């Protein structure tokens, strides 16, 4: 039994490998802050992943003052990993606060999606996609730089 447990644990990193350049990202579905489902498809060109509250705050600061639909017009998708947040806090405070945002936040409540895209916890991971394939990857730890990068994307 110990051998089986060690074998399974040693194979876990292989199942959660990062996406490689040119690789097609596996589709997934998450609910946003309004409990509306979104499925990653070939239309997405930018995937922003925040693994912590600090990362999510960077995205929010970068999108401050932008009109509703700004991120979606750039075929951008924002995934926030909120699995470390206590469920009661998320339900009563955090998610209702997110409903005032002028952009969608795909909520990874159980860390099913965000771990597929490893990045430092305090940064925002930017995955550039074309036809569902990863073509570039960047990390941002500054809201002004993230905002500038978003402004360079043509809607």
Task: Give a summary of the structure in a few sentences.
The chain has helices at residues 2-15, 53-63, 70-73, 87-98, 143-151, and strands spanning 29-32, 37-39, 46-50, 76-81, 106-108, 124-130, 133-140. With 155 residues, it is α/β, with parallel strands linked by helices.
Overall description:
The longest helix has 14 residues. The protein has a 7-stranded mixed β-sheet. With 155 residues, it is of the alpha/beta class. The protein has a single domain, classed as 3-Layer(aba) Sandwich (Glutaredoxin), CATH 3.40.30.10. It is globular, with a radius of gyration of 16 Å. The chain has 5 helices and 7 strands; from the N terminus they run H-E-E-E-H-H-E-H-E-E-E-H. Helix 4 links the parallel strand 4 and strand 5. Helix 2 crosses helix 5. This is FAD/FMN-containing dehydrogenase.
């Amino acid at each position: 039994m110990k051998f089986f447990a060690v074998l399974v644990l040693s194979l876990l990193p292989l199942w959660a490998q990062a996406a490689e350049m040119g690789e097609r990202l596996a589709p997934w579905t998450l609910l946003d802050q309004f409990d509306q489902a979104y499925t990653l498809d070939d239309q997405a060109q930018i995937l922003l992943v925040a693994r912590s509250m600090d990362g999510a705050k960077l995205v929010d600061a970068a999108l401050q003052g932008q009109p509703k639909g700004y991120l979606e017009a750039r075929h951008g998708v924002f995934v926030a990993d909120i699995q470390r947040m206590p469920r009661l806090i998320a339900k009563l405070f955090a998610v209702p606060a997110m409903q005032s945002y002028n952009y969608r936040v795909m909520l990874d409540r159980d860390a099913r999606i965000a771990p597929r895209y490893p990045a430092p916890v305090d940064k925002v991971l930017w995955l550039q996609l074309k036809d569902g394939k990863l073509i570039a990857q960047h990390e941002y730890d500054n809201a002004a730089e993230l905002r500038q990068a978003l402004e360079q994307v043509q809607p």
